[in-house]
TrEMBL record:
Flavoprotein as UniProt keyword: no
Record-linked SUPFAM superfamilies: 6-phosphogluconate dehydrogenase C-terminal domain-like, NAD(P)-binding Rossmann-fold domains
Domain Mannitol dehydrogenase N-terminal stretches: 40-289
Lineage top rank: taxon: Bacteria
InterPro entries named in the record: 6-PGluconate_DH-like_C_sf (IPR008927), 6PGD_dom2 (IPR013328), Mannitol_DH (IPR000669), Mannitol_DH/Oxidoreductase (IPR050988), Mannitol_DH_C (IPR013118), Mannitol_DH_N (IPR013131), NAD(P)-bd_dom_sf (IPR036291)
Alphabetic keyword roster: Oxidoreductase
Source lineage: Bacteria, Pseudomonadati, Pseudomonadota, Alphaproteobacteria, Hyphomicrobiales
Gene name tied to this protein: mtlK
UniProt domain Mannitol dehydrogenase C-terminal: residue ranges: 297-479
Protein name (database record): Mannitol 2-dehydrogenase
PANTHER family, sorted: MANNITOL DEHYDROGENASE 2-RELATED (PTHR43362:SF1), MANNITOL DEHYDROGENASE DSF1-RELATED (PTHR43362)
Amino acid sequence: MEKRPSESQPAPVKLNDATLQSLPTAILRPKYDRASLSAGILHIGVGNFHRAHQAWYLHRLMQEGEAFDWAIVGAGIRSYDETQRKKLKAQDYLTTLIQLNPLGSSAEVTGAMIDYVPVDTNNAPLIHRMSQPDIRIVSLTVTEGGYYIDPVTKTFNAKHPDILHDAECPDQPITAFGAMVAALKQRRQTGAGPFTGLCCDNLQGNGEILRQTVVSLAQLTDPDLADWINTNCSFPNSMVDCIVPATGPNELRLASDIGVNDAVPVTHEEFRQWVIEDDFCAQRPAWEKVGVTITKDIHGYEAMKIRLLNGGHQVISNVGELLGVKTIADCMAHEQIAALLNKVAREEIAPHVQSVPGKTPAEYIDLIVHRFSNPRIADTTRRVAFDGSSRHPGFLIPSLRDAIAKGSPFEGLALAEAAWARMCEGTREDGSTIEPNDPNWDELHIAATRSKQDPAVWRGQRQYYGDLADNPEFSDAFDRWLGLIWDKGIGVAIDTYLGN
């Protein structure tokens, strides 16, 4: 039975423009006139992270009385994006952000998004909106595995069925990149000019990867257009950082408890960082005024974050799944898992990471340990372990390669790979089922099952390990750890690594 609100607990306010002033006074809200905003950015992939991070920075700039002509138009290419669009449209594209830290919480309603393109199978509305001259930046958060690149060589995968479709039907693309190419073709014809493509996914050299995908796809159908895009558009590299859990019943309840009826609220940690390469072909908002680092040299920031934070996430999430530990904070409260992260990060990853202005690798590890341990952030191990087939090659295996090449310790990294293999077998150590959690789950599950008897089956997956499949040092370490995990359990394997 639905619980009726009492007099002391009024019904949550349905979020929209008309009710902003009726929200509880403790909730921050836009000070600017949203009716005066006009579009400048189109963002593809309007998930929780984008709304807690990039959209928040723009909102903060608008709160300072600037960037009113840089408002965000949301977009997506999957069927579930249309569901998101309808939810956001019903509340005038407003989002409630709830910041959670161990000492308490705070809430803010942000209003930098003003529209969301209807999702259509041929992406005609998206192409049309991107082709308009007011859109000067097209940004993306489409996950690390969404750029049609080989995870080992980082080269463009021209054989993927989606790419083959877009090459054959360039006016009716099914990928975001095909839509970008089609829009840029129109902009070239109309004189609207190029836009900046801003990747906000966790990829080393993410702007270079976005350029490669867009230009390579254009090359398949229109080499002259590809040359024009490569010469005139810019694709700055960027590093984004904020821990943002998925929205579920708990997050909806938190919003309701503070007095907001928001269909898609977002919870997040108190830490944010955004570093962007200073390379924009069609202007940009003055993000540096609200804490964004604009720099000519971004690769050090990228490496530190991707290898230590994202790589650290993979070290503990696969183990957490095997042991039935539900959240990242719970993993950090687990003595063994926390010790595993600490040793691998400090001894095997940090030696291959350079300091950046104001932060050494050791200081950054201290920071992520603090952030991962926040008990109020219900970031599930399942969410963090998702898409290991993209995240291990992107986040962990580069450190493994560096360590082997330099003769540095790598046993913990090999153990992490063995834990991934064991997890993909699909059962926890208590016998419960791990549901499919990777776009390539079927092939991973088959390899993981066979590797119980023959570890070479797993490490022989060259699409993830490349020539490491032939490296005797890695092979020996991986086989030993996987055998021990199957024989004695992940806990014994971790204790052995830790020297306990």
